[in-house]
Design a protein that fits this description.
- The complex is a heterodimer.
- By secondary structure, chain A is mostly helical.
- Chain A has helices at residues 11-16, 18-50, 55-69, 73-88, 94-119, 123-131, 136-166, 178-189, 192-225.
- Chain A has a single domain (11-225), classed as MetI-like (MetI-like fold, Orthogonal Bundle).
- Chain A contains 9 helices and no strands.
- In chain A, helix 2 (18-50) runs antiparallel to helix 8 (178-189), helix 3 crosses helix 5 and helix 6 runs antiparallel to helix 7.
- By secondary structure, chain B is α/β, with parallel strands linked by helices.
- Chain B has a 6-stranded mixed β-sheet with strand order 8-9-10-3-11-12, with helices on both faces. Chain B has a 4-stranded antiparallel β-sheet with strand order 2-1-4-5, covered by helices on one side. Chain B has a two-stranded antiparallel sheet with strand order 6-7.
- Classes of the chains: A mainly alpha, B alpha/beta.
C-alpha cells in the first residue's frame, strides 16, 4: 500500500526571518502611495482633458489612456527602466522608473473613472450651475466633482487595491520591495510555498485596512446625501 | 427715462435648430422692465427652447440677444453669433432660471444651495451670503428648512428653494421653465403662490406654463407660440378670452373641455 507523505511545511523558517519581508513592505507601501497619489491627481487632469470640448486637448488624452490601458504594466515598467535610457540617455533609478510606470498606468485607469463619474452626474446639475453664471471649472469644482467623487469611491477602491498588488511587478527591475525579497528568500531557502503564502498574508494585511477605510468613506457619503 | 431704456431684454430674429429640425423660426420679442410674461403653447411649440435661449443655455442658431441695451456675443458668418464663455457667465448671473426638475444641488443643504451663487459667482462674503440666503428662504416660507438636504424636502419645497436660489442672485430677469409641471397636483398651489408673491417686487419674469388660470392672474402679457413662431402676443384678457387666431382658440379649448 503506497504511503502518502504529508508535506512538511516549514513556516517556522519564514517567520524566523519575517523581518526581511517586513522591511521590504516599506518600499511596497512607498510605491503604492506614490503611484496612487500620482494616479488620482494625474487621472483627474487626463480625465478632464478627455471630456474637453476641444479636440486638441481631448484626443491626446484619449491616446494616453488607450496606450497605457491596453498594454501590460510589466512591459511599461521594463520600457521605462531599459528602453528610456537607450532612447533619451536618461537612466532612472529602478524605484523612480517603477513609480513613473505605475503612476502613468494608474493615471490612465483613474482618468476613465473620473470621466465615467463626471458623465454620470445628471445634466440638470450642469444646467443649474451654468444658470447661476458659474464657469466650467468652478462648476466642476463646486458641484460636479463633489457629486461625481461619491459615485467613484468603489471604482477607485478597486483600482487602488489592484495597484497595491501591481507594485510587485517592480521586482523585475530589482526594486527591493516585498515580492523581490520574497523571491530572493525563497530561492535561497527552497521554501517557495511557505514564503509566498506568508507574502500573500502580508499583502492582505496591508490592503485590507485601506478597503475598510473606503467602506467607511462610502457610508459617510451615503449618510450625507440623505 | 426713454422708451428704449424700458426694454430690458430684446430678441431679434431668433432661430434655433436641433440637427435638421428648426424649433424656433424667427422670434422677435421685446421685454420691458417689470413685465410678467406667460409663454403658452403645445409641447413642441418651442416655448421651453425660447426660454432656454434667453439665458443661452441653448445656443441660438441665428439671431440677436440684447440685454440692457448690450448685444450678447459677436456676429459671426452666416447670421450666427459667437459667444464667449465669460460673457455668457456674466449674462446668466443676471438672468435667473427656475427649472421644471428643480435641479437643486443634492450635496448641499437648502441654505447652501441658495448661498452658492452669491458666494462663488458674485464673490460675496460668506456671512453676507448666508444672511441673504436665509432671508430668501424665509420669503419662500422655508426658513425652518435651511439645514435640510434636498432629498428631505417635498417637490414643492424643493422648487421653492430653487426659486430662492435664483432670487439670491438678484437677477434682472427671472425665467421659469414649467416650474410646476413635475409636481403632484396638491403641491402646485404652494409654488404658484410663491411665484405670485414675487409680482410685488416688480421684477421682470417670463414663465412657461400650462397653468392657464395662473397665467391669467399672474401675467401682464401672454405669448402663444405655435411651431416656432409667436402667434399671439397681448394682455391676458385678450389672448385668453378673445384670441385672434384659430390655433390659439383650439389650444385653449382643450383646457376648458372638461370644466365642471
Amino acid at each position: 500500500m503506497p504511503t502518502i507523505t504529508m508535506p512538511e511545511f516549514q513556516f517556522g523558517e519564514v517567520f524566523a526571518n519575517i523581518d526581511l519581508l517586513l522591511e521590504a513592505c516599506g518600499l511596497t507601501l512607498a510605491l503604492w502611495a506614490a503611484a496612487l497619489a500620482a494616479g488620482l491627481s494625474g487621472g483627474l487632469l487626463i480625465g478632464l482633458a478627455r471630456i474637453s470640448p476641444r479636440r486638441w486637448i481631448a484626443w491626446p488624452a484619449r491616446g494616453f489612456v488607450e496606450l497605457f490601458r491596453n498594454t501590460p504594466v510589466l512591459v511599461q515598467l521594463i520600457w521605462f527602466y531599459y528602453a528610456l535610457p537607450v532612447l533619451s540617455g536618461i537612466q532612472l533609478p529602478a524605484f523612480a522608473a517603477a513609480v513613473l510606470a505605475l503612476s502613468l498606468n494608474a493615471s490612465a485607469y483613474c482618468a476613465e473613472i473620473y470621466r465615467g463619474g463626471i458623465q454620470s452626474v445628471p445634466a440638470g446639475q450642469w444646467e443649474a450651475g451654468r444658470a447661476l453664471g458659474m464657469g466650467r471649472l468652478r462648476l466642476l469644482r463646486r458641484i460636479i466633482l463633489p457629486l461625481a467623487v461619491r459615485r467613484m469611491v468603489p471604482a477607485f477602491t478597486n483600482r487602488a487595491v489592484e495597484l497595491a498588488k501591481n507594485t510587485s511587478v517592480a521586482s523585475v527591475i530589482t526594486v527591493h520591495e516585498l515580492m523581490y525579497s520574497a523571491r530572493l528568500f525563497s530561492s535561497q531557502n527552497y521554501i517557495p510555498m511557505e514564503t509566498f503564502t506568508v507574502v500573500a498574508m502580508i499583502y492582505f494585511l496591508l490592503i485590507y485596512p485601506f478597503t475598510l477605510a473606503s467602506y467607511a468613506l462610502e457610508r459617510r457619503f451615503a449618510a450625507g446625501r440623505a | 427715462m426713454t422708451r428704449a431704456d424700458d426694454v430690458v431684454l430684446q430678441v431679434e430674429d431668433l432661430h434655433k435648430s436641433f440637427g435638421s429640425t428648426e424649433v424656433l423660426k424667427g422670434i422677435d420679442l421685446s421685454v420691458r422692465r417689470g413685465e410678467r410674461i406667460a409663454i403658452l403653447g403645445s409641447s413642441g411649440s418651442g416655448k421651453s427652447t425660447l426660454l432656454r435661449c434667453l439665458n443661452v443655455l441653448e445656443m441660438p442658431t441665428r439671431g440677436r440677444l440684447i440685454l440692457d441695451g448690450e448685444a450678447v456675443g459677436r456676429p459671426a458668418a452666416g447670421g450666427a453669433t459667437r459667444y464667449r464663455e465669460a460673457e455668457l457667465n456674466r449674462l446668466r448671473a443676471r438672468v435667473g432660471m427656475v427649472f421644471q426638475q428643480f435641479n437643486l444641488f443634492p450635496h448641499m443643504t437648502a441654505l447652501e444651495n441658495v448661498m452658492e451663487g452669491p458666494l462663488s459667482v458674485l464673490g460675496r462674503p460668506k456671512a453676507e451670503a448666508r444672511a441673504t440666503a436665509q432671508r430668501h428662504l424665509d420669503r419662500v416660507g422655508l426658513g425652518g428648512k435651511a439645514d435640510a438636504h434636498p432629498a428631505r424636502l417635498s417637490g414643492g419645497q424643493q422648487q421653492r428653494v430653487a426659486i430662492a436660489r435664483a432670487l439670491a442672485m438678484d437677477p434682472e430677469v427671472l425665467l421659469f421653465d414649467e416650474p410646476t409641471s413635475s409636481l403632484d397636483p396638491e403641491l402646485v398651489g404652494e409654488v404658484l403662490g410663491v411665484i405670485n408673491d414675487l409680482s410685488e417686487d416688480g421684477r421682470t419674469m417670463l414663465l412657461v406654463t400650462h397653468e392657464l388660470g395662473f397665467a391669467y392672474h399672474f401675467a401682464t402679457r401672454i405669448l402663444f407660440l405655435h411651431e416656432g413662431r409667436i402667434l399671439e402676443d397681448g394682455p391676458p384678457e385678450q389672448v385668453l378670452k378673445s384670441p385672434r387666431e384659430e390655433r390659439t382658440r383650439r389650444f385653449l379649448d382643450r383646457f376648458t373641455a372638461f370644466r365642471f
